[in-house]
Specification:
The complex is a heterodimer of chains A (about 260) and B (about 650). With about 260 residues, chain A is an alpha+beta fold. Chain A is built from 8 helices and 9 strands. The chains are: A alpha+beta (about 260), B alpha+beta (about 650).
Chain lengths: ~260, ~650
């Protein structure tokens, strides 16, 4: 089995920093005899070891858990965030998905709100900023009632979990022609706005997080639904529709979420 | 050095309550004058930073990832234990305490474990109030399952993503405090040293992983929440970035390192497929309920399509060696047996180096018995994950599994207040050694991380600050500046060697990992450990002569990051072997092949080893010094662990 290898015609985006304009580098000569059992990131590891052996600076890319849950990895592979295999993060994409001799272009997630740090590594701290604006229930440690005093209908809990499964990778933004983070934002909102615990701050949260989203430089949603197709966790655009309903109600409230 | 855990005495049920009452409080108006540094933002770190921020302290939090939400707690699948007894099946705080002490094979402190069981119930309340979407029953109340062989259903879960949801809960609380200006968050910062002044931890030195800037940060206390050291084995289920550096640098500054040889190896991981393999992925152990483990009897069949190997040519080795338990033998026994098969040349799957590292886990009989539909209902998501990674459909071709390093029970020694042997240096979560003894039970890691962060440190840290009072030390003080200089010197040394070196850091790490699995892995013996102690310094020497690092220290440099972490793993590895060699007994996950009972279970030696071994660093080339904290068992009677 270890003889199952392929050669790639590999092009990787190299950019030394946000000020550099960047370019594709042809690394085909470093991407020969790649095991089909390797993951995409392991392919990059191999290329990096070979680059280093030639004294070339390794390709910078973000990654951590390599099991599809931390949300740290992500690259646009042949035009598709996380590559063409659906419901799969870059770290879980494997080289058997590629033909021998395939031409592969690897680029960073591109968006105004995700400035490039180096090569494939981008700054997604704008996602943190959106959460900081209201992606929480204001409950102090120790102030919670007994867990079973807050019954939650199973179907509501399951729906909230569907939304909460978002890993915050940013593929939705990279896929969107408007570089909107609506899918991310709406998933965060739906998770908390669906649950009874999230009701007291529901409209305040909606207003604040939407404002933070817009301030960060993300575009608006115009229903292309590319985000849903790119999302490795299958987050549904239904949550965007749900968010829009909450936004309408929120627009009738003051900044604290009280109906005017 | 006298190791005093400062555990309260008296009725175990009342110890924590009484202790909390006796702890001094910081006046609310004074809290904002105290600065606290939290390193790491997993369950322990995020919970601690959020809670300390809520209390009014000025908190600075650091993580190496691009966002605090990415810490590796996120990958925990199974669940979190709590003694809620919502199922009315006889659970209680005492039972959870009892199970945990016994599960740890009597190598944990009773007082700590009891407190853990007590606060477990508060954790669930807190998480639910934050909006963690735990699984529910149709009546709207919380669902539970039995996990890891527990006889009661006390595990709360959120699909297979419990760690993710609990971490996002803690991250949301942390985010709220960041927005409120109570916590300053520093992403992409790696801690490289502790600043110790007059015996007290007064800050840390970090490297900005983007700009390469080395900086000192001072505070009144430091909390390390930096996780475990499973990546010493190179291939593990840990995230790529998980490392021992923060703990190790603290160790070198005077914090004792306890029980480093207690490492947990998980039997059901997806095996390595080649030399390029970077990590291993864990699959739920529940697979062994229906899968049968086997290898071909003859090595000549090991490269063949398993379906072509006739029944009589297969060795169902767990069923053969352990007829009573068969495929359901405990984790450590299953792991050791699988490794032995592969070492004997009977492994299956692709060649990695000169061996095939894998054994079959075959569902053919289960599918024949129950039908594919039933099996897929139970394991569908795991089969899908397996197929995504290996390309094989477990319904058609037997799965391949191999053991992998998963969790480390050892860590920095802490007292009952979670303070290390450096005053003001607190250690939380997997980074400390305190609650799991020699073996951690399933669904207990999340519980411990959150217990330490939400419900222990807020009290004990307050007491420390109230006792010590405010005594400012600036980042421009001599001690801070010299700590920065020292770190800069260390980096310059690495860069200097690295420019001429020719061995990629990963290559050395890989070799260290293979060595550790061989000599200090799931089975250890005196001969192997001594070999390890001879080989590790050789590898370390090679590292310091020939490691390759391109680029400079003053920029983003992933090779430098790796090299720095490996340098520390190379030192830790030696300490692990020392510890494993000195602990001349088997207990929990520490299995000394010289000490086995007839049934293959670990044989403890309570007379000589019912203690914590905490190691003192005595210099870079000096032998570490072993200190002992005796363990007393007043409530759980010492007995032989048996799952028969």
């Amino acid at each position: 089995m270890s003889d199952d290898t392929i050669d790639l015609r590999l092009h990787v985006w190299r950019q030394r920093g946000p000020g550099d304009e960047g370019r594709f580098a042809d690394y085909s000569k470093y991407a020969k005899r790649i095991s089909t059992h390797a993951s995409f990131l392991e392919m990059l590891d191999v290329v990096n070891e070979r680059l280093a052996a030639d004294g070339e600076r390794p390709i910078a890319f973000d990654h951590d858990c390599r099991e599809g849950i931390c949300g740290m990895c992500g690259a646009v592979i042949n035009g598709v965030p996380h590559g063409h295999r659906t419901l799969t993060t870059t770290c879980q994409l494997h080289m058997r998905e590629f033909q021998n001799g395939a031409e592969v272009f690897v680029e960073p997630f591109r968006a105004t709100a995700f400035p490039v740090i180096e090569d494939l590594m981008v700054d997604r701290s704008s996602f943190d900023t959106i959460v900081q604006a209201g992606g929480y229930v204001s409950v102090r440690t120790g102030a919670a009632p007994d867990a079973n005093e807050i019954p939650v209908p199973k179907q509501i809990a399951d729906r909230a979990m569907d939304a909460a499964a978002c890993i915050g990778c940013g593929a939705c933004v990279a896929a969107c022609p408007n570089a909107s983070a609506s899918l991310f934002l709406s998933a965060k909102l739906a998770h908390l706005n669906l649950l009874p615990q999230g009701q007291p701050e529901r409209y305040r949260r909606t207003r604040a997080m939407l404002a933070a989203h817009d301030d960060a430089g993300f575009g608006g949603c115009t229903n292309h639904r590319e985000c849903e197709a790119a999302c490795p966790k299958g987050i549904s655009t239904d949550f965007i529709a749900r968010m829009n309903r909450d936004v309408i109600v929120a627009s009738l409230t003051d900044k604290d979420g009280n109906l005017i | 050095m006298e190791l005093d855990a400062r555990c309260p005495t008296g009725d175990i049920e009342k110890r924590w309550d009484r202790h909390r009452f006796e702890l001094k409080l910081v006046n609310p108006a004074n809290k904002r004058k105290f600065e606290v540094i939290v390193v790491g933002t997993g369950l322990a770190g995020a919970a601690a930073a959020a809670t300390l921020g809520e209390l009014g302290y000025k908190v600075k939090a650091f993580c190496y990832q691009d966002s605090p939400r990415r810490a590796h707690s996120i990958a925990a699948q199974g669940g979190i234990n709590a003694a809620k007894n919502y199922q009315n099946d006889g659970d209680s705080v005492f039972r959870l305490f009892y199970d945990t002490v016994k599960g740890g094979d009597f190598r944990a402190r009773e007082s700590n474990v009891y407190r853990l069981a007590q606060v477990s119930v508060n954790i669930i309340d807190q998480a639910v109030a934050q909006g963690v979407p735990f699984a529910r029953e149709y009546g709207g109340l919380l669902d539970n399952r039995s996990f890891g062989g527990a006889q009661v259903s006390r595990t709360f879960y959120a699909r297979g993503q419990t760690g993710q949801q609990l971490l996002l809960g803690a991250y949301s609380a942390l985010s709220r405090m960041i927005a409120a200006g109570k916590v300053d968050m520093y992403n992409r910062h790696e801690m490289l040293d502790v600043i110790v002044d007059d015996g007290r931890a007064r800050g840390i030195v970090t490297r900005d992983l983007v700009s390469g800037k080395i900086e000192a940060w001072t505070a009144d206390a430091v909390c390390l929440c930096t996780g475990g050291y499973g990546n010493v084995f190179f291939l593990s289920t840990n995230a790529m970035g998980c490392n021992v550096t923060a703990s190790w640098r603290a160790h070198k500054r005077g914090a004792l390192f306890a029980n480093p040889c207690y490492t947990q190896i998980h039997p059901t991981c997806i095996p390595p497929a080649g030399e390029y393999q970077s990590k291993l992925t864990l699959m739920s152990e529940s697979l062994r309920n229906d899968g049968r483990v086997w290898v071909p009897k003859s090595a000549s069949d090991s490269g063949k399509d398993p379906r072509s190997v006739p029944e009589k040519e297969r060795d169902y080795f767990l069923e053969r060696m352990y007829p009573a338990f068969g495929n359901l033998v405990p984790r450590d026994i299953a792991s050791r047996a699988a490794k032995r098969m592969c070492d004997d040349g009977l492994g299956v799957g692709p060649m990695v180096g000169d061996k095939r590292l894998g054994v079959y886990l075959d569902f053919a009989d289960a599918i024949k018995r129950d039908g594919k539909k039933i099996i897929l209902e139970k394991y569908g998501n795991l089969f899908e994950m397996y197929q995504r990674i290996t390309g094989d459909d477990p319904c058609e071709v037997p799965m391949r599994i191999y053991p992998a390093s998963h969790y480390t029970m050892g860590g920095l020694w802490v007292d009952y207040d979670l303070m290390s042997t450096i005053d003001g240096l607190f250690v939380l979560g997997e980074a400390n050694f305190s609650d799991h003894g020699a073996n951690r039970l399933g669904a207990s890691a999340l519980m411990q991380g959150l217990a330490d962060g939400y419900f222990v440190i807020p009290y004990t840290l307050g007491h420390y600050l109230a006792t010590k009072g405010k005594n400012p030390l600036g980042a421009d003080s001599t001690v801070a500046k010299s700590a920065v200089k020292e770190v800069e010197k260390g980096i310059a040394k690495l860069i200097d060697i690295g420019q001429k070196g020719s061995t990629h850091p990963d290559e050395i790490h890989r070799q260290l990992g293979t060595l550790m699995y061989d000599k200090c892995g799931m089975g250890r013996n005196a001969k192997g450990l001594k070999e390890g102690l001879a080989l590790i310094p050789e590898l370390r020497e090679r590292f310091w002569k020939d490691v390759q690092i391109l680029g400079s220290g003053g920029e983003l440099n992933t090779m430098l990051e790796k090299a720095g972490r490996i340098a520390d793993f190379l030192e830790l590895a030696e300490l692990m072997c020392h510890d494993a060699l000195t602990r001349d007994e088997s207990c929990g996950a520490h299995f000394r092949e010289e000490h086995v009972q007839e049934d293959g279970e670990a044989r403890r030696d309570d007379e000589n080893f019912a203690h914590v071994a905490a190691w003192e660093h005595t210099g870079d080339h000096a032998a570490p010094k072993r200190h002992v904290e005796k363990l007393d068992f007043e409530y759980v009677k010492l007995s032989q662990r048996s799952y028969k």
